[in-house]
Amino acid sequence: MTEQQICCCAASREDIQPNADGKIVQAAASEEATAGNGEILERLIALPGGEFEMGTNSADGFPADGEGPVRKVTVSPFRISPYAVTNEQFRTFVQATGYVTEAERFGWSFVFHLLASEETQEKVKNVPQQVPWWLVVEGAYWAKPEGPDSNIENRLDHPVVHVSWRDAEAYCRWSGTRLPTEAEWEYAARGGLSRKTYPWGDLLKQDGKHMCNIWQGKFPVKNNASDGYVGTAPVNAYKANGYGLYNMSGNVWEWCADWFSPGYHKQTDSVNPRFAQPTGKRSMRGGSYLCHRSYCNRYRLAARSSNTPDSSTGNCGFRVVAD
Ligand SMILES: [Cu+2]
Q1: Tens-digit pLDDT profile for residues 20-66
Q2: Which of residues 104 and 28 earns the better pLDDT score?
Q3: 9 alpha carbon to ligand 1 midpoint, in Å?
């Protein structure tokens, strides 16, 4: 696979609004830890932590992403949600706090072209040039994932999307949780297996069965959805990994706590690593329903991507952890 900087899965606000940062209204203070949602904490799975082999030396990925070299990393014990945060959970947070997401503040979010209605597509005035399959859809946000004529009523158990890194942080503060570091995320995603490509092993399918929600067909024009889904899948779809965690590969990208650096593996400690110097972009892990080997082979365990902390798309969500 050739070196490729663009992640087809990530469209960024800076591609559309170069001065986006200046326009951001600071996240409202109203969502500060007032609720302490015990219900969310109860559902977390305790992981023992310890040493594991992080990263990959494989050439399947993108050298510019900084996926390796493989190294021994130790993480402390922590707890993690078996699922990405759902639409229903995010709705509970919004109802309790009145929180307004960045997609709502900006007035738009990125929707994948095949998911938008014809009417919505006709109204689109702007697309990012490098990733033109992303539409700037006015009025798209977490509760209207494909724009004003859409809703989440039949997708309450799907992962919330169109949430920026800052939105995810706000949810974490409210629920008494936090975002995983990249190291915690990868340790959890590996599910106790060593040096595997995917959370279940090295082969994309197991016994002929799809194991995750990615793209089948010709990207970005035809998704034949042989894995069952064109867009998001319920957070508990497919088989859990060895730690009981669902959809660590595919479905939606998951925000991590670190700033993104291609030099991550050389620049961070081997014990509880965390890239803490601001780089302008936050790390994301896991890949999404848009990933395909021909274009964005980033549903592998060691794969990494990033986006600006104010960006939101229809294929990025998050999962929470706690100490
Ligand atoms: Cu991708």
Answers
A1: 444 444 444 444 444 555 566 778 999 999 999 999 999 888 888 99
A2: 104
A3: 4
Q: How far is the CA of 305 from the centre of ligand 1 (A)?
A: 8
Q: Which domains does the chain have, with CATH numbers?
A: 49-96+160-322 (3.90.1580.10)
In percent, the amount of the chain with pLDDT more than 70 equals 90
Question: How far from the centroid of its chain's Cα atoms is residue 16's Cα?
Answer: 20
Q: Which amino acid is at 222?
A: K
Sign of CA dihedral 57, 201, 272, 179: positive
Closest alpha carbon to 160 in 318, 322, 286: 318
DSSP letter for each residue of 82-151: SSPPBHHHHHHHHHHH----HHHHHTEEEEEGGGS-HHHHHH-----SSSTTEEEEET-BTTBTTSTT--
Helix (H) or strand (E) run with residue 16 in it: helix 13-16
User: How many whole angstroms from 97 Cα to the centroid of ligand 1?
Assistant: 32
CB atoms within 10 A of CB 82: 19
The Cα–Cα gap between 322 and 78 comes to 6
* 193-207 tens-digit pLDDT: 999 999 999 999 999
Residue 257 parent element (H or E): strand 253-259
